[in-house]
């Protein structure tokens, strides 16, 4: 089923929710970024400027995915999928606080593993409702997988 009518207000809200979650988390962790630049990092660590660019793209993609799910799913399907979506956003929000503000690198890695599982569950539930919604979650899964490598590397090296 192809979406024929785009409900722009609903789409905007769906995109704004993850952007606001990410933006608030970034605002809370902003003062801790100086310390991050001085950490020993594993090979393949990207430059610092890339993180907000990638996260913005990922938040927009997941917002679009949640909109598609809202538009296409039955009430029961949507409720379950969006429950896990909300839980993974909660885990996403707190990961950066644990990592940057509290410098709990090993704990953050375990938290990130839980986030990764929640994202996969969310993506599977989204995919069952709409293949495009599920596909839109794949870059997020890949980035969080890479973030796990970086997180563990920083934990080990520091």
In a nutshell, what does this entry contain?
With about 160 residues, the chain is mainly α. It contains 7 helices and no strands.
Tell me what you see in this structure.
The mean pLDDT is 95. The relative contact order is 0.16. With 158 residues, the chain is mainly alpha-helical. It has a domain at 52-157. The protein has seven helices and no strands. Helix 1 (8-29) runs parallel beside helix 4 (75-101) and helix 3 packs antiparallel against helix 4 (75-101). The chain has helices spanning 8-29, 33-37, 50-72, 75-101, 105-129, 131-136, 138-157.
| pLDDT < 50 stretches | none
> Would you tell me the structural class of the helices and strands?
mainly alpha
Mean pLDDT: 95
In what range is the share of β-strand residues? under 5%
Round the Cα radius of gyration to an integer and report it: 16 Å
What is the overall silhouette? elongated
């Amino acid at each position: 089923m192809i979406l024929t009518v785009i409900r722009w207000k609903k789409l905007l809200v769906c995109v704004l929710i993850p952007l606001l979650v990410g933006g608030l988390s970034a605002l809370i962790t902003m003062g801790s970024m100086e310390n991050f630049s001085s950490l020993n990092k594993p090979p393949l660590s990207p430059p610092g400027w890339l993180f907000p660019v990638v996260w913005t793209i990922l938040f927009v993609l997941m917002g679009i995915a949640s909109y598609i799910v809202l538009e296409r799913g039955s009430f029961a399907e949507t409720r379950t999928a969006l429950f896990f979506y909300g839980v993974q956003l909660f885990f996403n929000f707190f990961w950066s606080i644990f990592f940057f503000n509290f410098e709990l690198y090993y704990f953050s890695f375990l938290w990130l593993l839980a986030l990764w599982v929640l994202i996969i569950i969310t993506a599977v539930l989204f995919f069952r409702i709409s293949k495009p919604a599920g596909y839109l979650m794949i870059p997020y899964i890949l980035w969080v997988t890479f973030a796990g490598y970086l997180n563990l590397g920083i934990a080990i090296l520091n």
